């Protein structure tokens, strides 16, 4: 009987795949898709290791229409190389396009491909394209990954010219940040080429093939962090110059002139941003040479992220402004309407029209406006005096005023005082974080950025999959907190949250040791407001999510019960 083994990951982000009998043995959709690229290996000018020779294992004899696991129908072969093949396929169960890498189970790299796919699937970083399944079945090993029809490879973007400076800045920032996060988890790419970097229709940059592309081709490196950092430098160099920073042509780009060595991007092409030019040189391996300022080289993605952070931020270009057509006066506005035309040969000076509001009509209009203003001021003064005279009289309407739970009817409400958030950390007492690197996006003042949970197959209550998910916020010092406002990315029935006063920012402190401030409170909209019966003094506040609405598949996660939060604000 054929053996079927899938990646053992958390219940989160199964993207609607087949229900699993054991929630601990399944595949997440928050991994990395493998590349959909055609065979460009022959173009490579830079390698970090060798590939095993072709012919060691024959690719499986498959054809369009063949169905894997009675679910994935192969449609188009996009790569056939060195004993494996890559396909565009259709997931007939979820009616979506997917990518599939196939190789025989006895292929010398089959084990390493499975291991790489399972490791990358566990990363759960939305900046990487997702791995959906990693299976050994019927003498085949196949990896199913996300297919992004609206994304464009960097290779295609550079075909028409270098990137605009802000686009290049966004690309290197997002790619370097993603690779730094991957290396912190012990994962390397080792084949980070222009075909592995994609820009989506929303402007996000995503990376495919983490660990798996290298495993498919047998690529290894003794210095994986240096290898990936140099690759990011090459991507930035190409984005700035439309040239590959080596002598050989590759990926549809011309190489540098032979015999001249590595030239800084701003010397290759006029108008290149000086800071980005130096950044590319610091990332590339160039025998210690850097740009004119001679900063130290960047040897890891983390160092590259730090160098980017020290640069002045490059802002997007201002939208082009098109001036309206010049205003043309009519003959009536020019004062010639009804005037007798001068006889030929007679020159008559045209009198200039009176300046605005200087005629009799204009004078009358000014007096009318002045009278109206005086009348309005008098009426307003009378109403104000009347209100002051009657402010101590009882309200005849007998209407009930709304006050908070700490005030008696008729008392003045305490002014709301905003509280500044100093720091934040994801809270995961079960040892399984969601996206800890994104928690700062919840209070960065940008409503388009957010921290998100995984996508769960059951809900809206997250239990028993998860007791809950949350973030602990540091207010900098002990504050009197009474309310919170939290923006939500997904609407629907239902999101449930509570606030707790914590003793520290620990991600593992039991929730039973904390003091509940307010909640649980639920909403079906995109804003949740929580209000305490009385203010609570605390420095650390836990926002605790115990239920999430159902939402369909999007750019970052599959369909399921999930939530993303932004614009967190506290007040006291």
In short:
The protein has about 575 residues and is α+β, with helices and mostly antiparallel strands. It has helices spanning about 110-120, 155-160, 165-185, 210-215, 225-240, 265-270, 275-285, 300-310, 360-390, and strands at about 65-70, 70-80, 85-90, 95-105, 130-135, 140-145, 150-155, 195-200, 205, 420, 425, 450, 470-490, 495-500, 515-525, 525-545, 550, 560, 565-570.
What does this structure look like?
It is a single chain. By secondary structure, this protein is an alpha+beta fold. The chain folds into three domains: 41-146, Phosphorylase Kinase, domain 1; 152-310, Transferase(Phosphotransferase) domain 1 (Transferase(Phosphotransferase), domain 1, Orthogonal Bundle); 418-571, Sandwich (Jelly Rolls). The protein has nine helices and 19 strands. Strand 2 (72-81) and strand 3 (84-91) form a beta hairpin. Helix 3 packs antiparallel against helix 5, helix 3 (165-184) packs across helix 8 and helix 5 packs antiparallel against helix 7 (274-283). It is globular and about 90 Å long. The two termini are 64 Å apart. Residues 1-60, 331-339 and 392-412 have low confidence and may be disordered.
Give the SSE map.
Layout: E1 67-68, E2 72-81, E3 84-91, E4 96-104, H1 110-121, E5 131-137, E6 140-146, E7 152-153, H2 154-158, H3 165-184, E8 197-199, E9 205-207, H4 212-217, H5 224-241, H6 265-268, H7 274-283, H8 301-310, H9 360-389, E10 418-419, E11 423-427, E12 451-452, E13 469-488, E14 495-502, E15 515-523, E16 527-547, E17 550-551, E18 560-561, E19 564-571
